[in-house]
């Protein structure tokens, strides 16, 4: 976007313009993303293994109780499509926002709850809960997921706060891979003795929206809302942190409480998302970077847009997975990995100049 | 992060005084002596571990009986030793050595200690392809070829995508992305398999040396020998890569070509080991750093090979005998559970010479 130097005598536009997308464009971009999300919701409700006409879907939606003698279309929409749409929406929203908070607090462009092992922590704790304690209630599983992701987040936070790992994306990413691999080993140890749990786990671990309970979504919604509010409340502190620790301190933010609150937000968001949809990788990364490209670096705008983008991503991936392999379906997590890995690579390649 | 060249002495002035030359010679001798000493100790440790592996078990066999069985005595003892314990030990040795060498080689030529086959997706590619093959009902050589193909595809992807900046952090982060991509394919293969298929693939994915036909041992051993010979012949080219590319070029080496060949060799080694024993976690990653610490200097491929073998045999022994309960966890679980904290500690504490600037 660098304009070539010219010799005309008109006053130059203010310099800030080139630094971040202009306000109008940002607003337009955000609106477009919101429309895209609505479209994704509509597609997710309308498309699936069984062909149902849009009119029938609409009729089913407008018929809240399902009527006295529900037809197949109504049952499919109410029992299958609405739950997975709701769950995809919530999980994507949470992960997108968690990605932004994580990148803000670590000041590291590759931070992503999946890449850094926070989701693996939640997954391990959930498997432990299922297999050893025999927990099946949504709230119990969520509690385990919270504990697990808290432990993993504290671990990763400690690693990231060491000078070397924090300054180098590669070291942080490898530390995340190590946390993930170690936790996966422990998870496997539990699962080897428990074939039934293994059978459930192999579908859950790829990140899938099928067969999830919508009751889970309503139970976990308060936690999710708490996480979203914490993240939004932190937006000014995160703006300040982006300028460096010293500047943030100079602006009157205390670092330790800020970091603690950010950690809490990340844990709440990731744990609910993982409990809902399994450990999804790349959603946070893609949401955060996409949002930054559209609305720039201010966190108050960045957070909601990243949430919208994350939700869109998960829903589209889920819908795509439903149609690419007709009789069966491809889990959302697999589709996201197939799309997300190339995007991460593109990101790294484009940051060549930035010294990565 | 300073980019000091590895501990090779700084190039001497054109006409080194005899004193400087003497010091250089003494330094080289000290390094060589330490290398020999470390190798000797590692071989002794390996011998000790091997003897333990052959004697200890559900039926304890005395050292003398072990020697008897090895030299041709008949009977149940010799079945236990030759039929069960020796193949397992041998597979652990060759697989560990292959992984250790593959890791140290890649770390050396990419000049980044984070670049090991298990981090940058080579073993991931091999596993995904092998599990797809297993789920499709393949066995033996077909699984091997699939793993090899997977590792090579992953290596090509990482190499091509990181472009001219093959050294440094870009290679690593792109490799991690490729590893996650491979992981997605793996998840796909697992969900498509039948429950029994998924279960056996799942066991395989943990990494185990428990079932060890002699054919497997020979295949890995032969590959290891060939690669080691090639590396031995090309050791001057390899040590030139320890300098930066411009210096290496000035010395008449071809850094890019050498690097391509080395990455290829590392992929082949890792793929063969993975095809036979599954992706045993972290062995490739930790062998290099451990070897460098023991040696105190320089790229230490031979030492890393010994370290890899030691780690796998020791971890397998721990899994068989030291873990309480009836479940004997396969070796990959032990290296995974112990390797992760060690790796993180390495990352946080850091080696003295950790990273060359990209």
Automatic annotation (TrEMBL), chain B:
Its main location: membrane. The chain crosses the membrane at residues 37-60, 89-107, 119-139, 146-165, 171-190, 202-234, 260-286, 330-348. Pfam families: FecCD. GO terms for molecular function: transmembrane transporter activity. Keywords: Cell membrane, Membrane, Transmembrane, Transmembrane helix, Transport. It comes from the Bacteria. GO terms for biological process: siderophore-iron import into cell. It is found in: Cell membrane. It is a multi-pass membrane protein. InterPro entries: ABC_BtuC-like (IPR037294), ABC_transptr_permease_BtuC (IPR000522). One of its GO terms (cellular component) is plasma membrane. Belongs to the binding-protein-dependent transport system permease family. FecCD subfamily. This is Iron chelate uptake ABC transporter family permease subunit. It comes from Actinotalea soli.
């Amino acid at each position: 976007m660098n304009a070539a130097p010219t010799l005309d005598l008109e006053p130059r536009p203010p310099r800030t313009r080139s630094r971040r997308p202009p306000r109008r464009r940002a607003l337009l971009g955000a609106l477009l993303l919101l429309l895209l999300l609505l479209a994704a919701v509509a597609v997710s409700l309308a498309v699936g293994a069984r062909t149902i006409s849009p009119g029938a879907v609409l009729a089913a939606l407008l018929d809240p109780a399902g009527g006295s003698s529900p037809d197949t279309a109504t049952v499919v929409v109410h029992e299958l499509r609405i739950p997975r749409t709701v769950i995809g929406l919530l999980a994507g929203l949470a992960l997108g926002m968690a990605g932004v908070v994580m990148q803000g607090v670590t000041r590291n462009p590759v931070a992503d709850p999946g890449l850094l092992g926070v989701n693996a922590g939640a997954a391990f704790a959930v498997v432990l809960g299922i297999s050893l304690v025999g927990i099946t209630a949504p709230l119990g599983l969520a509690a385990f997921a919270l504990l697990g992701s808290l432990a993993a987040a504290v671990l990763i936070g400690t690693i990231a706060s060491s000078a070397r790992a924090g300054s180098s994306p590669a070291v942080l990413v490898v530390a995340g891979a190590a946390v993930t691999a170690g936790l996966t080993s422990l998870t496997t140890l539990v699962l080897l003795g428990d074939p039934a749990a293994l059978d459930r786990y192999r579908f859950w671990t790829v990140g899938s929206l099928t067969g999830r309970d919508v009751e889970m979504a309503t139970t976990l919604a308060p936690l999710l809302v708490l996480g979203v509010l914490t993240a939004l409340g932190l937006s000014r502190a995160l703006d300040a942190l982006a300028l460096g620790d010293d500047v943030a301190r100079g602006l009157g933010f205390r670092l330790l409480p800020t970091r603690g609150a950010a950690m809490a937000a990340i844990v709440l968001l990731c744990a609910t998302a993982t409990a809902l949809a399994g450990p999804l990788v790349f959603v946070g990364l893609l949401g955060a970077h996409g949002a930054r490209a559209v609305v720039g670096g201010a966190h108050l705008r960045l957070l909601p847009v990243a949430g919208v983008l994350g939700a869109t991503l998960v829903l589209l991936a889920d819908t795509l997975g439903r149609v690419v392999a007709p009789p069966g379906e491809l889990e959302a997590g697999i589709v996201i990995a197939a799309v997300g890995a190339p995007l991460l690579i593109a990101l790294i390649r484009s940051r060549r100049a930035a010294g990565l | 992060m300073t980019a000091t060249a590895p501990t090779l002495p700084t190039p001497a002035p054109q006409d080194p005084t005899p004193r400087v030359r003497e010091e250089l010679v003494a330094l080289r001798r000290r390094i060589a002596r330490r290398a020999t000493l470390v190798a000797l100790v590692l071989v002794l440790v390996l011998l000790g571990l091997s003897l333990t592996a052959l004697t200890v078990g559900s039926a304890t066999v005395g050292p003398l009986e072990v020697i008897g069985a090895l030299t041709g005595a008949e009977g149940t003892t010799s079945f236990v030793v030759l039929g069960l314990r020796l193949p397992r030990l041998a597979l652990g040795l060759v697989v560990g050595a292959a992984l250790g060498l593959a890791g140290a080689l890649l770390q050396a030529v990419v000049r980044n200690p984070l670049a090991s086959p298990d981090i940058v997706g080579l073993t991931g590619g091999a596993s995904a392809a092998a599990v797809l093959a297993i789920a499709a009902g393949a066995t033996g050589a077909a699984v091997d070829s699939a793993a090899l193909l997977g590792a090579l595809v992953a290596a090509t992807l990482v190499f091509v995508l990181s472009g001219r900046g093959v050294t440094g952090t870009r290679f690593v982060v792109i490799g991690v992305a490729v590893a996650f991509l491979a992981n997605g394919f793996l998840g796909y293969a697992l969900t498509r398999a039948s429950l029994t298929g998924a279960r056996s693939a799942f066991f395989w994915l943990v990494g185990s040396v428990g079932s060890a036909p002699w054919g497997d041992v020979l295949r890995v051993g032969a590959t290891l020998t060939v690669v080691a010979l090639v590396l031995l012949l090309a050791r001057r080219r390899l040590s030139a890569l320890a300098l930066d590319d411009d210096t290496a070029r000035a010395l008449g080496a071809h850094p890019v070509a050498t690097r391509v060949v080395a990455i290829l060799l590392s992929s082949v080694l890792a793929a063969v080991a993975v095809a036979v024993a599954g992706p045993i976690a972290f062995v490739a990653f930790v062998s290099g750093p451990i070897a460098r610490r023991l040696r105190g200097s320089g790229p230490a491929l031979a030492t890393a090979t010994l370290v890899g073998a030691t780690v796998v045999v020791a971890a397998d022994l721990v899994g068989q005998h030291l873990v309480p309960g009836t479940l004997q966890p396969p070796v990959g679980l032990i290296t995974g559970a112990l390797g992760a904290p060690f790796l993180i500690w390495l990352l946080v504490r850091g080696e003295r010479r950790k990273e060359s600037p990209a």
